[in-house]
């Protein structure tokens, strides 16, 4: 009697069984992450006690006792301070932030012309979002529009021209200046840092010496000194009648400073590439620039994404130092408005610092999370 062999062969794979309930869920996470060892138990209890001690007071100050609306300092001051609040109640003065919000965003930019920086911000977001999506098409055109076309359009929109009134850069301020400085610094420092890193590894003595001297000199002095020299000393070496806009000096100083640190980050990635990659490119007959552009740099930059983003985050926060040359970024304009007698209360400065810190944290945290996403997206087996 013949037997059908197909009756003994499974035609489909078994469905995977779910993990045991003891190995999944919140209880498993709590048991393994917070109470796995006696030391973990002690640290968890101490952390929870610290949170229970600090968080209620913070919530109370930030939200419950906070003042959300008002026209002057009396809304945020207690009776003994000349205000309307009961003595002992001193929450955050968000009314101050609400009243000064436009200045925090645009500085002294004319109120009836603030649609121009708003339009620039909208264009920036429209071009940035598809640039950050890995699978978005037309990356080349997108990069061209974001890094070349948009700065040119933004220049005429913000400064003026083609029928738009002229707005001097000393009137700029707030978050607008912070974003302009950081975007320009990031855009310039990455390609310039790559060139400096390649130059430092060059076999040509003159090129290598120039790059080494530039990197070591810039990294050896603080950013405040760079900004001070760009603002005060640079005009002394210019011919009579020549001058540079103060914002342009800050852009150049910040970009050069960041490029020196970026060069060392990229150089670390280049040194991490196995020698066989260089030899394989040479065996294919590729030129130096083809070898770097097609094989070496893509791998090196992928390896140092955390370092690159860390430099970007540091640059974004360091823009607050432009106050040394009389410019007012977000933090600078917050500090400037704290001297307004109409809003002079004990809680006004703290509220302003909390607002500025939250805005800085929001942007830096976003860059950090995107960096982690790109690391996972580009991970090809370096992690074990």
Q: Overview of this structure, please?
A:
The protein has 384 residues and is mainly alpha-helical. It has 3 domains: 30-65; 113-167; 173-378, Orthogonal Bundle (MetI-like fold), CATH 1.10.3720.10. The protein has helices at 25-33, 38-64, 94-106, 115-132, 139-159, 175-200, 205-219, 223-233, 246-272, 275-283, 288-303, 305-318, 330-337, 348-378. Helix 12 packs antiparallel against helix 14 (348-378). The radius of gyration is 28 Å and the shape is globular.
Strand content: under 5%
Q: How many strands appear in the DSSP assignment?
A: 0
| SS-derived structural category | mainly alpha
| Average of per-residue pLDDT values | 90
Number of domains: 3
Low-pLDDT parts are none
* Element pattern in H and E: HHHHHHHHHHHHHH
Give the proportion of residues in helices.
55-70%
CATH level-3 fold name of the largest domain? MetI-like fold
Question: How many H/I helices?
Answer: 14
Instruction: Report the radius of gyration as a whole number of Å.
Output: 28 Å
| Main CATH class of the largest domain | Mainly Alpha
CATH architecture of the largest domain: Orthogonal Bundle
The major β-sheet equals: none
Shape: globular
CATH superfamily assignment of the largest domain?
A: MetI-like
How far do the termini sit from each other?
A: 55 Å
Give a short summary of the structure:
Helix content is 64%, strand content 0%. With 384 residues, it is mainly alpha-helical.
């Amino acid at each position: 009697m013949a037997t059908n062999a197909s009756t003994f062969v499974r035609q489909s794979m078994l469905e995977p069984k779910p993990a045991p309930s003891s190995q999944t869920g919140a209880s498993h996470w709590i048991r393994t992450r917070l109470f796995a060892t006696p030391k973990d138990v002690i640290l968890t209890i101490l952390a929870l006690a610290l949170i229970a001690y600090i968080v209620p007071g913070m919530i109370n100050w930030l939200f419950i006792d906070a003042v959300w609306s008002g026209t002057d300092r009396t809304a945020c001051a207690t009776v003994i301070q000349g205000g309307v609040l009961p003595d002992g109640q001193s929450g955050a003065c968000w009314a101050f932030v609400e009243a000064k919000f436009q200045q925090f965003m645009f500085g002294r930019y004319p109120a009836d012309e603030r649609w121009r920086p708003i339009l620039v911000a909208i264009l920036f977001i429209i071009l940035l979002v598809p640039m950050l999506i890995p699978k978005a098409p037309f990356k080349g055109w997108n990069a061209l529009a974001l890094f070349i076309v948009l700065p040119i359009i933004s220049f005429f929109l913000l400064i003026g021209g083609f029928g738009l009134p002229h707005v001097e850069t000393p009137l700029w301020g707030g978050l607008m200046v912070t974003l302009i400085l950081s975007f320009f610094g990031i855009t310039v420092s990455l390609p310039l840092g790559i060139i400096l890193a390649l130059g430092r590894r060059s076999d040509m003595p003159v090129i290598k010496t120039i790059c080494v001297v530039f990197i070591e000199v810039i990294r050896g002095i603080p950013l405040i000194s760079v900004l001070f020299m760009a603002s005060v000393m640079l005009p002394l070496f210019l011919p009579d009648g020549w001058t540079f806009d103060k914002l342009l000096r800050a852009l150049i100083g910040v970009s050069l400073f960041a490029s020196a640190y970026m060069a060392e980050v990229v150089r670390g990635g280049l040194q991490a590439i196995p020698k066989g990659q260089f030899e394989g490119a040479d065996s294919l007959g590729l030129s130096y620039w083809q070898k770097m552009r097609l094989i070496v740099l893509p791998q090196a930059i992928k390896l140092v994404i955390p370092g690159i983003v860390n430099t970007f985050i540091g640059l974004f926060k360091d823009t607050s130092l432009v106050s040394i040359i009389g410019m007012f970024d977000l933090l600078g304009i917050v500090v400037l408005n704290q001297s307004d007698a109409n809003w002079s209360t004990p809680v006004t400065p703290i509220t302003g610092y909390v607002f500025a810190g939250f805005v800085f944290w929001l942007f830096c945290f976003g860059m950090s999370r995107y960096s982690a996403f790109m690391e996972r997206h580009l991970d090809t087996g370096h992690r074990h």
